[in-house]
Amino acid sequence: MELCSERHRVKLNHTNNFTDVILLQMLPEKVAQCGLTRRRPYIALAAEIPKLFKNRRMVHLHLLPKPYFTFIETDKPTYKPNDTVRFQTFSLDHEMKLSNCDIKMQIWHSGNVVAETRSHKQGSDAICRGKVNIPSSL
């Protein structure tokens, strides 16, 4: 498997609640080199955690040509069952201009979608807003 982006090392611990955010970028020259086409727009994200898993864990990601950047902001950092997640989104295209912000938001638990909604454009700006309730059964 060809490496299509730089490697990232993350430290997951109690202090960061076992979460981290990294920015992955697919440069145009790597698109052709890694075999991405309109008919095959998937890449594999691999995680190696020798202390937990014997083999590399992989998930396939569907790459879309637009928008290039989508920003999602929530009203608070963590949520509990019965909470309402309020969010707003906006997207930028390859020229860094505001783009369509229609986003499908899903909440997953144990590999299953437990709630989902779509953001909606409000007013004349390109910011979309939405909310989704976290089920009490989680």
Task: Draw up the topology in text.
Blueprint: H1 28-33, E1 42-47, E2 57-62, E3 69-74, E4 84-92, E5 98-99, E6 104-109, E7 112-118, E8 120-121, E9 128-133
Antiparallel strand pairs: 1-2, 3-4, 4-5, 4-9, 6-7, 8-9
The 3D shape can be described as: globular
Oligomer: single chain
Give the strand tally.
Answer: 9
Write down the overall mean pLDDT: 78
What's the order of the H and E elements?
HEEEEEEEEE
Largest sheet: 5 strands, antiparallel
The first-level CATH class of the largest domain is given as: Mainly Beta
Quickly give the structural class: mainly beta
| CATH topology descriptor of the largest domain | Immunoglobulin-like
End-to-end gap: 37 Å
What is the beta-strand fraction? Answer: 35-45%
**What is the overall number of helices?**
1
Number of separate domains: 2
CATH superfamily of the largest domain: Macroglobulin (MG2) domain
Q: Tell me what the CATH architecture of the largest domain is.
A: Sandwich
Rg? 18 Å
Give the low-pLDDT segments. none
* Helical content band: under 10%
Question: Can you walk through the features of this model?
Answer:
This protein is mainly β. It has 2 domains: 65 residues, no CATH class; 73 residues, Macroglobulin (MG2) domain (Immunoglobulin-like). Helices cover 4% and strands 36% of the residues. The protein is built from 1 helix and 9 strands; from the N terminus they run αβββββββββ. Strands 3, 4, 5, 8 and 9 form a 5-stranded antiparallel sheet that branches. A hairpin with a 6-residue loop joins β8 and β9. The longest helix has 6 residues.
